[in-house]
Design brief:
Length: 523
């Protein structure tokens, strides 16, 4: 039985268009999903849109359209961007779908049956931008003396009848969960943040609203709609068929040995690491395995925002740099979990320095040599020298290094390990100088070329999750059959066969900034 892996993105608010911050989370999840599929796991990858709540209702009113219209329009935009980014999601959930409304109502009823919901009155502060309640003590003052949420979002005073979830009663259970599962939250800094927040005591949570109607009706009292976060978090189990607890729920949300990974921004870890596990425990449902809180991107040193008008459209970046290049850059540039700054200089530097000059050039050097001098036939290797063995050994240890890094969502570590080998392989070409061996020692030349091809096969297979288009082309050029591109083929029993005819080489990582006709020729 293959092992199961379930990965989810946050579902995105449809009040606005997708920008590079959203694309970042989705790309990270796509890379995780592709990696696990290549490693033999049975993977489910879910993304989607968060369509209810005051924020979306307000955005619709401002545009003079109905909430459903803005949802339909912007949800499609998120779907289109995902397609353009090459995202391999297995499902796309919209919270306005009947399957989701049914799941939310089933979860609500279950909480109610378990005595986990009570009716009272909420009087306090609410920030529509964050869709979050705040205590007086958390607020700060804006430049004009106005009250602001700690995130800088404006707050309004809300007083209404509301259903509550007794979150305060779950403090000990949550702390016990974190103590028993130190990997439940990553990176470590986020774990510590959540731990001390919960340790500081929890207030009961208002989980319904009556001031507006754009939400999932509360069963038995449709004057109330569910608080958008209880609705949104439920998407992770709607996507598995909840309330049906057999099928995908049993597989990807098992009672023991959880397999689900929620990747979210650091801004929303409290919802995922405190509220969500408390709801699940209160409903006697199993828990996810881990929540990872990624950092935030700024743009050329500035926070991305609607008012500054500097939110970057991922489609424009794909158009300009290429989608593999964008995917690679975002995960290579900064340690996953940290904040980062997007700049044109940084992306161009990564594309040219690493994809084109280092990786692309490595492949093109020996592939065009084989095409020109050996009629495109991959040579048979002769006896291996220590240098050959060292390079091949480094390649063979890569998959495990990547697996270990992926367990921590440390894409940067996996990529660094891969690029250590890319650099070693380029050094190997320089030292072995196959072009000089052509006249002096053709047998040795053949071995060197073979070692380079085999090394590139490893690198390309492991780079597939990051740069799927380019590596597919590269593996075609190495004549690696489509069914032999998984990590199972990186083991000691598999290697390229000498004598294979290779297709005509073609650059897969063009330099950025070269005139268009040069694109495709590699470096
Ligand atoms: N709808 C909620 C999530 C519900 S999940 C059950 C939400 N949506 S959001 O559209 O506002 O943002 C979702 C995510 O987008 C953030 O958590 C984060 O992962 C990502 N990002 C949004 N802006 C970002 C940056 N500037 N940088 C990096 N990621 C950012 O919150």
């Amino acid at each position: 039985m293959p092992k199961a892996f379930y990965v989810t993105t946050p579902i995105y608010y449809v009040n606005d268009k997708p920008h590079i911050g959203h694309a970042y989370t989705t790309i990270a999840c796509d890379v995780l999903a592709r990696f696990k599929r290549l490693d033999g796991y049975d993977v489910k990858f879910l993304t989607g849109t968060d369509e209810h709540g005051q924020k979306v209702a307000k955005a619709a009113a401002e545009k003079g359209v109905t909430p459903q219209e803005i949802c339909d329009l912007n949800s499609q935009t998120f779907r289109d961007v995902a397609k353009n980014l090459g995202i391999s999601n297995d499902d796309f959930i919209r919270t306005t779908e009947p399957r989701h409304i049914a799941a939310c109502q089933a979860l609500w009823k279950r909480l109610e049956e378990n005595g986990q919901i009570y009716l009272d009155k909420y009087a306090g502060w609410y920030a529509v931008r964050d869709e979050a309640f705040y205590d007086e003590g958390e607020l700060t003052k804006g430049p004009n003396g106005e009250k602001l949420a700690p995130t800088g979002a404006p707050v309004e005073w809300v007083e209404e009848e509301s259903y509550f979830f007794p979150l305060s009663k779950w403090q000990d259970k949550l702390l016990a969960l974190y103590d028993a599962n130190p990997d439940f939250i990553g990176p470590k800094s986020r774990f510590n943040e959540i731990y001390s927040f919960v340790k500081g005591g929890l207030n009961d949570l208002s989980i319904s609203r009556t001031a507006f109607s754009w939400g999932v009706p509360v069963p038995g009292n449709p004057k109330h709609v569910m608080y958008v976060w209880i609705d949104a978090l439920t998407n992770y189990i709607t996507g598995l068929g909840y309330p049906d607890e057999s099928g995908e729920m049993a597989k990807f949300w098992p009672k023991t040995d959880p397999v689900a990974l929620h990747v979210v921004g650091k801004d929303i870890i409290r919802f995922h690491c405190v509220y969500w596990p408390a709801f699940l425990m209160a409903a006697n449902l199993p828990l996810p395995r881990r929540v990872f809180g990624q950092g935030w991107w700024t743009v050329e040193g500035q926070k991305m925002s609607k008012s500054l008008g500097n939110a970057i459209d991922p489609n424009a970046l794909i158009e300009k740099y290429g989608r593999d290049q964008l995917r690679f850059f975002l995960l290579r540039e900064i340690p996953y979990g940290n904040d980062g700054d997007f700049s044109e200089a940084a992306i161009a530097g990564r594309i040219n320095g690493e994809l084109a000059n280092a990786f692309g050039n490595l492949a093109q050097r020996f592939l065009s040599f084989i095409a020109k001098n050996l009629g495109g036939v991959l040579p048979e290797p002769g006896p291996l020298t220590d240098a050959d063995k060292e390079l091949l050994g480094a390649c063979r240890s890569l998959a495990d290094q990547c697996r270990e890094a992926f367990e921590r969502q440390a894409f940067h570590d996996a990529l660094e390990a891969i690029f250590v080998v890319v650099r070693a392989a380029n050094g190997y070409v320089d030292v072995q100088a196959p072009w000089a061996l052509k006249k002096t020692d053709p047998a040795r030349m053949s071995t060197v070329l073979y070692v380079l091809a085999e090394c590139t096969r490893h690198l390309a297979i492991l780079m597939q999750p990051f740069t799927p288009d380019a590596t597919a082309k590269l593996l075609d050029q190495l004549a690696v059959p489509e069914g032999e591109r998984t990590f199972a083929f990186l083991g000691p029993d598999h290697a390229l066969k000498g004598g294979a005819t290779l297709p005509a080489p073609q650059g897969v990582f063009p330099r950025y900034g070269d005139p268009p006709k040069a694109a495709g020729k590699g470096a």
